[in-house]
Amino acid sequence: MHHPQPPSGIHPLLAQRFSPYRFDPSAVVDDHAVGLLLEAARWAPSAGNSQPWGFFIGRPGEPDHDRVLPHLAPNSARWATDASLLVVTLTRRHVDDTQLLYSEFADYDLGQAVAHLTVQAQAMGLAAHQFRAFDLEGLTKELDPKPGWVIISMVAVGKAVGGPPEGRDRRSIAHLRSAPWSPAE
User: Keyword set for this entry (predicted)?
Assistant: First the structure.
């Protein structure tokens, strides 16, 4: 059974979170707000306290934003360009230019940092939309991360226009518990 609305009891920041496809282009996320978003990400848990995440931030009207825009896929460019921030997420998978793993949990840990950033955005009256519709090869060439670092995703952050869509659908708890397993015979 799917629950169109989250059950009472989960935190409102989680219950009200959604990924908007429209942002207010006049909204500004100032340096202080950017600092709070990154501070929330900084405090995410990581394996062995490795903290294998990094972020490249671009705001409209700034050169770093202009570096990212050409690499957005057309379907994400339609809505992401109006966001107050475009955040490129990176993880440190390897030690420098070797194949030695920096952390086998790097991608997972980055996900936690992005989740913290997302909840902090929600607490600040902002919304975050995580996405992967961009030219990974082109953006990697443009930003040229240090050896061992790889770009994983992007997050558009800003003031959402409108609220969550009606009838949001999430998989049931029963499905979450049963989907990975083969039926018993």
Answer: Oxidoreductase
For 75-96, write each residue's pLDDT tens digit.
999 999 999 999 999 999 988 8
What percent helix, strand, coil does the chain show, rounded to 5?
Answer: 35, 20, 45
Please give the Cα distance from 20 to 32 (Å, whole number): 23
Contact 43, 116 (CB under 8 A): yes
Q: How high is the pLDDT of residue 7?
A: 66
**What is the C-alpha separation between 63 and 66, in angstroms, rounded?**
5
For 39, 45, 99, 177, 183, the CA distances from 89, given in Å and listed in that order, are: 15, 16, 21, 29, 37
User: Residue 52 is encoded by which pair of tokens?
Assistant: 């294998």
